[in-house]
Amino acid sequence: MTNTLPAPTLKRPAVPPQGTRGFLLALLILGALLGLSALIGWGLSLLTAQVVPGAPAYLILVWAGLALLVLAPLTYRAFPWITDWFYLLPALVFVLAFTVLPVILTVNYAFTNYSGQNSGSPDSASRTAATLSADRRVVTLSELGEQTVAEYLGCAQPSCQGASLVLYDEEASSPLRQKVESVSGPQVTLSAPVPATLETVAAATRINTFGYVGLANFQEIFSKASRALWPVFLWTVVFAFSTVIINALAGLILGILLYNKNLKGRNIYRTLLFLPWAIPAVISVQMWVALLNQPYGVVNKALGLLGIVAIPWLNDPLWAKISILLVNLWLGFPYMMTATISALSTISDDLYEAASIDGASRWQQITGITLPLLRTSFTPILLSGFAFNFNNFGIIYLLTAGGPDQAGRESTARSTDILLSWGYNTAFVSSGGQNFALASAIALIIFFLTLAISLVNFRAAGVFKEARK
């Protein structure tokens, strides 16, 4: 009698949820995995900083990566089907790091007073002489004058408990932050003795703290709307709309002319007209800056030979705007020309032959066949072109840097500044005071304006109707 062993049963893998539900569930699980890994990495980096004060900041990424390696197998054990979605992890990391996080920070800063002056860093301009007591716990600030310590530190309460004081040695090479326990006259009692790593204390300063200010940034923007927001917004719309119309007309005309199969040397013409698009915009714009120079530029030199007075292409508010449109035409018409030629290749030649047999002229063929059939192809191109030029920071920054100045305007919102360059000037240019909070509020306004204009464009173009079909 032979004993037969039962055949081993194979464990079937869990069936993953299907459809939209499965996709959303996978995103939720992977997002929780990344969030928990980041939280563990942040906690371990804080512990590391307490043990090793000089530990580099990038350790949070190292700890988070190690946590992800440990948690990924545990996630697989709980949800075996999730392996089919692990390929989304790199994409989620990049989306969270370069899209979601900047958006969250921008929205957060828009309601604060975060700037070059209120940055959470030591205020080097307010540094004052200081001496340290023998027990290394009491710091005496000797050069405050009539200002109290609480006023100097900007404390919310008279005792200044929990505030920070930055101490320097004679060389001011290694600033040390210490928490304040209480203040009495010019003396500041620290919550802990100054470590021996700072041998002597020669100076001290406060921390430029920043906090939430509610809608103050938006109130400031709209209180100065006539000097910045409205003129900049109007020029942004005019610039984007004019650029799209001018470039589309130029590209359409050249594309129709160069698509003519009877035109000799049309490939040579196409290549020559394509060159402005092939050359990097940084090089082309800098070339135009030299060409449009008022006293020495080639353009004005040529006009002088014709008896025309030198035109202030880049030095007059109106002419600077015209210069931007002309240079942007130079940069943009090859794209429209190429798009026209590509769209024309999809139109059957039989239509033109039938129209010729019926006696239609070349102009009638263009207006009756070419333009109506190009409308479908050109609608998304024109909409995307408008959205691109609405935030076309490069041409403004490289050609005019937002200038020239114009009377009655803010120094950060000059004659040719668009909304995006206005925000850039506010955040990163000295005339804007490096006001990152105000620039973040401007960015939110730009977002809502761009969203509103895009919805109007899509509705006018019938995109929503097509999507419902």
From TrEMBL:
PROSITE patterns in UniProt: ABC_TM1 (PS50928)
Signal peptide: none
MF GO annotations: ABC-type maltose transporter activity
Domain of life of the source: Bacteria
GO process annotations (BP): maltodextrin transmembrane transport
Topology class, membrane: Multi-pass membrane protein
Domain ABC transmembrane type-1, first and last residues per copy: 233-457
Main location per the UniProt record: membrane
Entry function: Part of the ABC transporter complex MalEFGK involved in maltose/maltodextrin import. Probably responsible for the translocation of the substrate across the membrane.
Membership in a protein family: Belongs to the binding-protein-dependent transport system permease family. MalFG subfamily.
Classification via PANTHER family: MALTOSE/MALTODEXTRIN TRANSPORT SYSTEM PERMEASE PROTEIN MALF, MALTOSE_MALTODEXTRIN TRANSPORT SYSTEM PERMEASE PROTEIN MALF
Annotated protein name in UniProt: Maltose/maltodextrin transport system permease protein
Organism: Deinococcus arboris
